[in-house]
Q: What sequence folds into this?
C-alpha cells in the first residue's frame, strides 16, 4: 500500500449547500432554489436542494464516522445565506450552529478547512446582478469580515472560493447552473467580479491579522493541445489563459495574462473596471492553494461560427483510446496530478498546496452491494490508488504538497445531477438519511494508518 509522510494530511471534502439543505436554522433562498422551483424536471429524479444530506441534524454522528476512518482534515464551508438570510440581518441561530459544528471537529481531532463560497449564491445577490454588482461584492466582504472575526481563531485554513469559474461557465455560457444563459459578455463580467471579491477578501484577511491561512480552491483540469497541430497549440494556450492557468494566476498573485486582455478587447467584451480595482487584484497574495482535479482538458480547434469570444473557436475532445468514467463522460488520467505537482513547483514558487478534491462519481452504486449490504466500490479504490500514486511521485520530486482530500466524505447532492453519481466514502440512504461505510472507507482508513 502507498505510504505518505506522517505530517501529510489525508482527508475529505464536501460543501455547505451540498450537505446542509435547509437545515435546522433559517436560511435565505439560493439560486438553486429558484432553478429547482422553475424547472424541477431538470433535476435528476426530481431531487432538489431542500434536504440534501441533512448534515445539520446528523453532524455529530457523521464526524464520529470521519474520526473512525481517521481523517486528518475535512473541508466544508459556511453558508452566506444561512448567516445572512437577507444579506443584511445576522442569523444568530446560524452563528451558534457553526460554532457547534466546528467545535465537534475539534473534539474529534480533525482539522477544519472552511470555504466562504461554494456555488451557493443567495437569490437576493443574484437579483442585484451577482458578482457583476459592486453592492454584492461589498456585502460579500462584510460577510467575510464577520466570519473572520467570529471564527478566525478556530479555523486552520480559510478558502475564499471553490472552483470560482464553474458557476460562470455553467450559468452564463452553460445550462447546469442558474440562470442558465448563453452570454459570454455577462460571463466575463461575473468572472471579473469574482476575481475582485477574492482579492478584497484576501486583503481584508491580511489587514485583520487573523492567525490562520487563506487561499483559494481552483479546479485545475490540466490543459493539453489535442494534437501537435499549430492550431490546436494556439487554442490550448488561449483556453489555458481563460480556464486554467490564467484565472488561477489572477487568484494566486494578481497576475493577469496578456492573452486575456488582448482577446477580450478583440471581441469588445472587456468588463467594466477601474484602475483602483485592478491594483487591488494585482496585490493578491494567497498563503496556500487547493486544487480540484478530475480530468484533463485536451483542446481542439473548431470553426468560430458564433464569433462572440475566443473560446468559441475551440472545444474539449477526448482521445478515442482514453480511459473513461462512463457515468460522467470524463477522461481518467491520473498522470495529471503529477503534471500539476511539477507545474506548481516550477511556476507558482512551490507554494504550499493540497489536492482539495479528487474522486470518482458512479451511478447506481446499489448494484455493487454485497450480501452484507455494503457497497463494494473497488472502482473507487482503483481510482484513488492510481491518482494518489501520481501525487506521491510529485511529492517525491519536491512539490510542496501537504495533503489530499477525496471528494467526498459522504454522498453529496450534486446540483442538477442530485444523487445520480455518488462520490462518498460513506453512503447516504435518501429514504431515511441513514449512513453506511462503503468498502473504500476501510481502504482509506488503512491508507491513513499506513503513513510513516
A:
Amino acid at each position: 500500500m502507498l505510504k505518505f509522510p506522517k505530517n501529510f494530511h489525508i482527508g475529505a471534502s464536501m460543501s455547505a449547500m451540498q450537505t446542509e439543505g435547509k437545515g435546522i436554522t433559517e436560511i435565505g433562498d439560493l439560486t438553486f432554489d429558484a432553478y429547482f422551483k422553475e424547472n424541477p424536471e431538470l433535476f435528476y429524479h426530481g431531487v432538489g436542494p431542500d434536504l440534501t444530506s441533512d448534515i445539520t441534524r446528523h453532524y455529530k454522528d457523521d464526524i464520529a464516522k470521519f474520526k473512525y476512518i481517521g481523517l486528518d482534515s475535512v473541508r466544508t464551508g459556511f453558508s452566506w445565506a444561512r448567516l445572512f438570510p437577507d444579506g443584511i440581518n445576522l442569523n444568530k441561530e446560524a452563528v451558534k450552529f457553526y460554532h457547534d459544528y466546528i467545535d465537534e471537529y475539534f473534539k474529534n481531532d480533525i482539522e477544519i478547512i472552511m470555504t466562504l463560497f461554494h456555488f451557493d449564491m443567495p437569490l437576493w445577490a443574484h437579483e442585484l446582478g451577482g458578482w457583476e454588482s459592486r453592492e454584492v461584492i461589498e456585502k460579500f466582504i462584510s460577510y467575510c469580515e464577520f466570519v473572520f472575526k467570529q471564527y478566525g481563531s478556530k479555523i486552520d485554513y480559510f478558502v475564499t472560493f471553490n472552483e470560482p469559474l464553474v458557476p460562470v461557465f455553467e450559468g452564463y455560457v452553460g445550462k447546469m447552473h442558474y440562470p442558465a444563459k448563453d452570454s459570454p459578455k455577462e460571463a466575463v463580467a461575473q468572472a471579473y467580479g469574482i476575481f475582485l471579491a477574492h482579492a478584497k477578501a484576501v486583503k481584508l484577511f491580511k489587514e485583520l491579522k487573523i492567525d490562520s491561512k487563506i487561499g483559494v480552491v481552483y479546479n485545475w483540469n490540466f490543459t493539453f493541445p489535442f494534437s501537435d497541430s499549430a492550431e490546436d497549440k494556439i487554442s490550448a494556450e488561449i483556453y489555458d489563459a481563460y480556464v486554467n492557468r490564467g484565472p488561477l494566476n489572477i487568484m494566486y498573485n494578481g497576475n493577469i495574462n496578456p492573452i486575456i486582455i488582448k482577446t477580450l478587447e478583440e471581441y469588445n467584451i472587456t468588463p467594466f473596471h477601474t484602475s483602483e480595482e485592478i491594483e487591488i487584484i494585482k496585490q493578491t497574495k494567497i498563503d496556500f492553494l487547493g486544487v480540484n482535479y478530475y480530468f484533463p482538458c485536451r483542446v481542439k480547434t473548431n470553426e468560430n461560427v458564433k464569433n462572440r469570444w475566443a473560446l468559441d473557436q475551440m472545444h474539449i475532445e477526448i482521445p478515442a483510446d482514453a480511459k473513461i468514467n462512463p457515468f460522467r463522460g470524463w477522461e481518467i488520467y491520473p498522470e495529471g496530478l503529477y503534471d500539476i505537482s511539477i507545474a506548481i513547483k516550477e511556476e507558482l514558487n512551490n507554494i504550499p498546496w493540497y489536492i482539495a478534491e479528487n474522486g470518482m462519481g458512479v451511478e447506481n452504486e446499489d448494484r455493487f452491494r454485497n450480501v452484507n449490504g455494503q457497497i463494494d466500490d473497488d472502482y473507487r479504490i482503483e481510482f484513488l490508488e492510481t491518482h494518489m500514486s501520481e501525487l506521491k511521485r510529485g511529492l517525491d520530486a519536491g512539490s510542496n504538497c501537504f495533503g489530499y482530500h477525496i471528494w467526498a466524505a459522504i454522498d453529496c447532492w450534486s446540483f442538477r445531477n442530485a444523487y445520480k453519481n455518488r462520490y462518498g466514502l460513506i453512503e447516504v440512504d435518501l429514504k431515511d438519511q441513514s449512513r453506511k461505510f462503503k468498502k473504500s472507507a476501510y481502504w482509506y482508513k488503512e491508507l491513513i494508518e499506513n503513513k510513516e
